[in-house]
Design goal:
alpha+beta, eight-stranded mixed beta sheet, four-stranded antiparallel beta sheet, about 25% helix
Length: about 650
């Protein structure tokens, strides 16, 4: 650890600072901590950020409170955990009555301005609260640069609009300090920097890698299906060459947005604002590139998704590196203290000012994170991730696979060796503390007077969210889901079995079925897994609770590969609103549809359940062994 040097920040003086610094918070969406130069990455992805890091203090062990944008950014802006601010699922907004960083800085006399490109943090979800001005500059930029062309490649969001509008704002007369929030969408997928600006892609892209540069593909019903979403469906195989090129595209996107940050730093320097401003740079979460068999983000709590870069630079900020673990929620109280503003008492985060000044902390830092995706019919969370790191041990609760993992972060920071069973005491202690934190969060929510809200999402915003791969994930309680899509572990993820894109022809009919069946409002159960694993999950059952209008019939669609050699037929039992609706047998069918009449009683919702019984053995393709991937797909719905 490099010892910090320098003076105490002016804003930390007793009674507040007479000279309040400007505060500029720059967030690069989906930036992994280990893909930046100051984080030890071997590629020159971030020369401008590296230069900035040399002028201030960096935190190599900074972690987000969630592994996806809305929940994580809301925690950064409110200083509380996701279960308190409530912005956790697709339609959720930040709870009413919860003070935000912008509101408290505005009360302190700051002009508050926010520019963003990711629709997940739009005003419709409450992120505008406290800002004098909070806009996405993309439309204005496209109107001013109609010939730029590139914006249509990247779902109509162009990161170049951020420095463009920042220049305009900085040229306006300033009569008071300002808080400027800049949320770039890069390097979020698709990884589409201008080709000529990507130093890491040297040859033609493979067809799979090309998917990450082109606009998203479309489902038959018109809803976008991004390349990452296709991977998570098990509908896209990736060979080693494609994997390397996808990472090349991601790194190129980092280098591209690093240049844009460099433009903003130059604007501040030219206007003599840099020495008067606290500049913070961070990200909301990382990105997984098959580290644990998966791709994308929001699907686990591994280090590659929660660890983020964090830099703080400005007057009174010493130079150095602080290796102590910190959380993104710590930024709100830190910036409030540096501005001499009032820090609310109920914050989960804590100010880093003493740590920045080099004062050792006697308290063991807890790093708690959570992500809520879906609910059961009572509104209780059943599809979630929660994790807690305390000292060297980290416990992860996976609500989708219903399992617990324990990792030793000192000996195994890559989190590849689950210590359970064998370290039950550490797991029990962490689990007790994790549950205590969660109960405390719920108590804060109930006693704080905060009101949870669901946003009214416009068609335009829905289109942008769909292009980002978010539409259809995390529905509110109207459509809870009871059995998760498969994946998330090295031995269960679809990519764990598919090593050659040429093999995809074998599965083309299953892929097409999966894509056609993936409607909004229906539950899709899918997987490329060992058949025995699939069967074990199906015995537990798949279910969905659907809004009922004029529908008169339930249906179940399914897929098995042709040529299936089963000792016994697969028996599928259906229950409608808890009552048996029949048992059906299928054998050697590529596709099948089962349907039946709904009860005549008028109900606002109908619950459908399907369970399976059948042979524990199969040989799906003859030349593959019985542990090879097989397709087992079910869709449930009403009509």
């Amino acid at each position: 650890m490099t010892a910090p040097t320098g003076c105490t920040p002016e804003a930390n003086q007793p009674g507040g600072s007479r000279i309040r610094p400007n505060i500029i918070l720059v967030l690069l969406d989906t930036l992994r901590a280990d893909h930046v130069g100051f984080g030890g990455y071997s590629r020159p992805t971030t020369p401008h950020l590296d230069g900035l890091a040399a002028q201030g203090i960096s935190f190599p062990n900074a972690f987000a409170a969630a592994s996806y944008t809305r929940a994580s950014t809301a925690s950064l802006m409110t200083g509380v955990y996701p279960s308190v601010h409530g912005a956790v699922a697709y339609g959720d907004s930040i709870a009413r009555g919860l003070p935000t960083l912008a509101q408290l800085l505005r009360q302190r006399g700051y002009e508050t301005v926010g520019y963003y490109l990711n629709g997940n943090i739009s005003a419709q979800f409450g992120f505008h609260r406290g800002f004098h001005r909070y806009i996405s500059p993309n439309k204005a930029y496209r109107k001013a640069h109609p010939a730029s062309g590139w914006s249509t490649v990247r779902w109509q969001a162009d990161d170049r609009s951020i420095p463009w509008i920042t220049r305009t704002y900085l040229d306006e007369p300033k009569t008071r300090p300002f808080f400027l929030y800049l949320h770039f969408v890069a390097p979020h997928a698709p990884y589409a920097p201008p080709r000529k600006l990507n130093p890491f892609v040297t040859g033609p892209l493979t067809p799979t890698a090309e998917l990450f540069y082109r606009p998203p593909q479309n489902r038959p019903n018109g809803k976008p299906l991004s390349a990452i979403e296709r991977m998570q469906l098990g509908a896209l195989a990736v060979n080693p060459r494609s994997r390397r090129q996808i990472i090349d595209l991601y790194d190129g996107e980092i280098a591209f947005v690093d240049g844009l940050v460099g433009e903003i730093l130059a604007l501040l320097e030219d206007r003599a604002l840099l020495k008067k401003s606290i500049v913070v740079l961070t990200s909301d979460h990382g990105e997984e590139f098959w580290d644990h068999g998966g791709m994308g983000h929001g699907t686990s709590h591994y280090r590659e998704l929660l660890q983020v870069p964090l830099l703080i630079v400005g007057p009174g900020i010493p130079r150095g590196v602080r290796v102590e673990p910190v959380g993104l929620m710590d930024l709100m109280p830190t910036l409030l203290e540096l501005a001499g503003a009032v820090i609310p008492r109920n914050l989960s985060g804590r100010s880093l000012v003493e740590l920045i000044q080099g004062q050792p902390s006697e308290r063991v830092r807890e790093l708690y994170a959570e992500g809520l995706v879906r609910y059961d019919e009572t509104g209780a969370p059943i599809d979630f991730f929660r994790s807690l790191q305390q000292g060297r041990y980290k416990l992860v609760l996976d609500g989708r696979l219903r399992k617990k993992n324990l990792y030793d972060e000192k000996l195994n920071p890559a989190e590849t060796r689950n210590l359970l069973p064998g370290h039950e005491k550490q797991a029990v202690d962490l689990l007790a503390r994790l549950r205590e934190i969660h109960r405390s969060n719920l108590a804060t929510l109930s006693t704080g007077g905060y009101r949870q809200e669901t946003a009214d999402i416009s068609p335009e915003l829905e289109s942008q969210l769909a292009a980002l791969g978010y539409v259809g994930g995390g529905e509110p309680p109207e459509n809870p889901v009871f059995l998760r899509p498969m994946g998330g572990q090295p031995d269960a993820h679809p990519l764990g079995f598919l090593g050659d894109e040429a093999q995809m022809e074998r599965y083309s009919s299953a892929i097409q079925f999966a894509v056609e069946t993936s409607f909004s409002g229906e539950q899709l159960l899918y997987g490329w897994r060992r058949f025995s694993d699939n069967l074990a999950l199906m015995k537990r059952g798949a279910g969905v609770r659907l809004k009922r209008a004029e529908q008169k019939e339930w249906w179940l669609r399914g897929f098995f590969p042709k040529g299936l050699d089963l000792e016994n037929p697969i028996r599928i039992a259906i229950r409608v609103d808890g009552k048996p609706a029949g048992e059906f047998r299928v054998r050697d069918h590529a596709r099948f549809t089962i349907s039946g009449s709904l009860p005549t009683a008028r109900r606002p919702f109908t619950r459908l359940d399907a369970t399976c019984q059948g042979s524990p053995w199969m040989a799906p393709f003859g030349d593959l062994d019985q542990n090879a991937p097989c397709v087992l797909v079910f869709g449930l719905g009403l009509r």
